[in-house]
Amino acid sequence: MPEASSSPQILISEVGPRDGLQSVSAIMPLEARKAWVAAEAAAGVREIEVGSFVPAKVIPQMAGTAELVAYAREIPDLTVAALVPNLRGAQDAIEAGAHKISIPFSVSETHSLKNVRRTHDQMIEQVRAIAELVAQQPEEQRPHFEAGLSTAFGCTLEGPVSDDLVVRSAERLIEAGCAEVGLSDTTGYANPAQVRRLIRKVRAAVGDDKLTGVHLHNTRGVGLANALAALDEGITTLDSSLGGLGGCPFAPGASGNIVTEDLVFMLEAMGYDTGIDIPALMKVRDVVRDALPDEPLYGFIPDAGLPLGFAHA
Amino acid sequence: MPEASSSPQILISEVGPRDGLQSVSAIMPLEARKAWVAAEAAAGVREIEVGSFVPAKVIPQMAGTAELVAYAREIPDLTVAALVPNLRGAQDAIEAGAHKISIPFSVSETHSLKNVRRTHDQMIEQVRAIAELVAQQPEEQRPHFEAGLSTAFGCTLEGPVSDDLVVRSAERLIEAGCAEVGLSDTTGYANPAQVRRLIRKVRAAVGDDKLTGVHLHNTRGVGLANALAALDEGITTLDSSLGGLGGCPFAPGASGNIVTEDLVFMLEAMGYDTGIDIPALMKVRDVVRDALPDEPLYGFIPDAGLPLGFAHA
Question: What share of residues in chain A are helix, strand, coil (percent, to 5)?
């Protein structure tokens, strides 16, 4: 192994243990969730969104996330991320020791009301309260606080979402105290031209360093083309899900995060450095399959295999 | 409908009736092949590779291609393309009246020997003889003559294929009399960085106007990302197959052309003008399904549907 790589580094943020598990009806036991996180970190994944801090009666699949965060924190060099829907969730996540917390902000207000039963103004209040709580933490346990602009590329309830509303939402979230915003194609509506355009517009409004990641779905088959468009714009963090597990339970018909295995293949083939060992990553599927035998796992690379003589470009 | 569009036009070249049908073991009756071609042209597809001119004892699925070419020629505004493996096939294709003929040239000589049992030198001889035959035709029935650089992105038998060999092959083919070359990801090995690099290198060697089309597969999930990379380089013709039917029967493990339905969605969403009506295109699947009930048809758009409020960008 070379001591240092000159290839540009891309951070894959695995969201399967959160976005994947909360979308399937079966409940994965906590021990299996731990095994999944451990195996994927061992394959070289450096950031994992391990769960969300929601009441177990609302999303029982996410019960025990605090214990999972505490477990994952012990894994060296792993950034432990968690989703928080509100201030209460943020309090729990910080207490558990999450390195990074993300709150979803639905640019489509209809989707926001359906998903978290809050208006935009109410969400901004939550964000402001969380930002204050984060700022009060001693530096060594202060999490990175992000907001994800859900339905940024269109909404299954409202239809098209205006670029201006995405930009204004990003500005409000940064003003309310988020360190960063991300663009989320919650509904799988995005196309590469739109990805490029929205990244440029949001960055122009809030600064390049305040938009470094995107969350893409492959619902309409263009997920990796959208990822390529985002890379071209200088995005350095891409969310994906092992086996494509997951989607959004409150966006009807929308399913399918981009598949981590396929994304890592594309990036490594192009000469990016993800730090991830593809054969080891493939074996993580067994952990998920053993715990959720009835859930289909997706991915082209697992079916087709790597090209003959494949090597990091 | 607006009288003229200011959107950049992209030509989708449907290859399902050739690449698709020769890859499946079932034989589609000639009448169904005609119905497929007619329905897809009616949906706005302006170029269709309707078949290949090979002996029916080698590929029985392609029997009757001459009659199909004659039928398709009567469809207004449709470019009727055919694949020819050699001089004999070219003679038959010209006699049948094909507007465009393509010969596959495997950059991997191992693949060439396996696929058409000819060395590179022998293939160049065929190309030279076909070019002479084409030149002898009266102008009104002279077909456009292309060569497809098969296995340009890697070979399932040889592994990596060098860029230099692709460039030298392109130069030899143009020198031998092809009007144009295309890059073919026969094996589904390509990645977007390689697509960009090879297009630039080949164009630098033979001229931009001598490489305007690429033939991509989605075997490893990155087919549409590769298409995006090709568009960025100025490629204006993209091959694809309805329902993703097809692949290469002599490249083990390689399957799956990019899906016409998904490609058209991506292009139209990005603001390109393909001239294709997506709902009409979707209905063409019924024609194929009725004639080949046991063949799986792929595609994300057929499963997920168009985004709510979708309109040509």
Answer: 45, 15, 35
**Confidence bin at B3 (pLDDT 50/70/90):** very low
Q: How far apart are CA B95 and CA B98, in angstroms?
A: 8
B187-205 pLDDT tens trace: 999 999 999 999 999 999 9
**Residue partners of B11: CB distance under 8 A and separation at least 6:** B46, B47, B213, B236, B237, B238, B274
Residue range A11-304, CATH number: 3.20.20.70
Shortest Cα distance from B137 to chain A (angstroms)? Answer: 42
What residues of A act catalytically? 248
Question: Quick check: A298 and A243 in contact, CB under 8 A?
Answer: yes
Burial of B30 (0-12, 13-18, 19+ CB in 10 A): middle
The ipTM is 0.95
Contacts of B187 (CB under 8 A, 6+ apart): A307, B151, B153, B154, B155, B156, B217, B219, B248, B251, B254
Task: For residue B183, give the 3-state DSSP assignment.
Answer: strand
Question: CA of B271: which chain A residue's CA is closest?
Answer: A193
- Which has the closest alpha carbon to A235: A286, A283, A193, A183? A183
Would you give the end-to-end CA distance of chain A in angstroms?
A: 14
Instruction: Output the six-digit token pair for B220.
Output: 């490893």
Q: Which two tokens stand for residue B312?
A: 């040509």
B308 and A155 in contact by Cβ < 8 A?
yes
pTM: 0.96
